[in-house]
TrEMBL record:
Pfam families: 2OG-FeII_Oxy_2 (PF13532). One of its GO terms (biological process) is DNA alkylation repair. SUPFAM superfamilies: Clavaminate synthase-like (SSF51197). This is 2OG-Fe(II) oxygenase superfamily protein. InterPro entries: AlkB-like, AlkB-like_sf, ALKBH3, Oxoglu/Fe-dep_dioxygenase_dom. The lineage of its organism: Bacteria, Pseudomonadati, Bdellovibrionota, Bacteriovoracia, Bacteriovoracales. GO terms for molecular function: dioxygenase activity. Transmembrane segments: none annotated. Residues 114-211 form the Fe2OG dioxygenase domain.
Length: 212
């Protein structure tokens, strides 16, 4: 299966490669992030199922005293008792469907990690986006692994180093899987930027482990 990896270093250096990557301990101590990308991870594009069946919400977000709709739709799926909140938005929990469990199982097998929740995002066109952030909510613990499955049209995903400002862009295509390993969330921000050109609809499923 086609696989890309990106070793991220704070000293303005990113190495990137295709195929397998073996951690070398001397290198590891300088690493400030690690990303894996599988462009063709899923056999089927589940976009239509996800668009129709997930319990999409249009929430409002208040930033610096101004309230606006979030620039995308979203929803939360998780194990019983596993709730999620970000940017002061409390997301009601939905139960996993068998289709979602199948996607989650495939990812857990690849990442060798268990996830108990998933934040789904639906970008209706190029004007929907998610701004710079890291997935660093306290409930995710200090070293989260985040796995992001993409369906539908491609969108650019950018990463920015908190200290050096270094930028990396990856075009996330439908049926792909992106894994952000620790300590990526601590040292890097990420976003799906707004796009002025026409963009097909896209859905991302971001799997997390929430500590209770
Ligand atoms: O849509 C994506 O690929 C990224 C979404 C994201 O960063 C998030 O849900 O935290
Ligand atoms: Fe994120």
């Amino acid at each position: 299966m086609e696989r890309w990896w990106y070793s991220l270093f704070s000293a303005n250096e990113v190495s990137m490669g295709q195929g397998s990557f073996v951690f070398e301990s001397e290198v590891e101590s300088f690493l400030d992030g690690m990303i894996e990308y599988y462009p063709n991870f899923f056999k089927d594009d589940e976009f239509s199922y996800l668009k129709e069946k997930l319990n999409w919400r249009k929430d409002l977000i208040t930033i610096f005293g101004k309230t606006n709709p979030i620039p995308r739709l979203h929803c939360w799926y998780g194990d019983q008792g596993i709730n999620y909140e970000y940017s002061n938005i409390h997301l009601p929990r939905n139960d996993w469907s068998s289709e979602l469990i199948k996607i989650k199982d495939e990812i857990e097998e690849k990442v060798s990690t268990r996830f108990n929740g998933m934040l789904a995002n639906y970008y209706r066109d190029g004007s929907d986006y998610v701004s710079w952030h890291s997935d660093d909510e306290k409930s995710l613990g200090p070293n989260p692994t985040i796995a992001c499955a993409s369906f539908g049209g491609p969108r650019v995903f950018s990463l920015k180093n908190r200290k050096s400002g270094e930028l990396i862009k990856i075009n996330l295509q439908g049926r792909s899987l992106l894994i952000m390993h620790p300590p990526t969330q601590r040292e890097w921000l990420h976003q799906i930027p707004k796009s002025k050109v026409f963009e097909d609809e896209r859905i991302s499923l971001t799997f997390r482990f929430v500590h209770q």
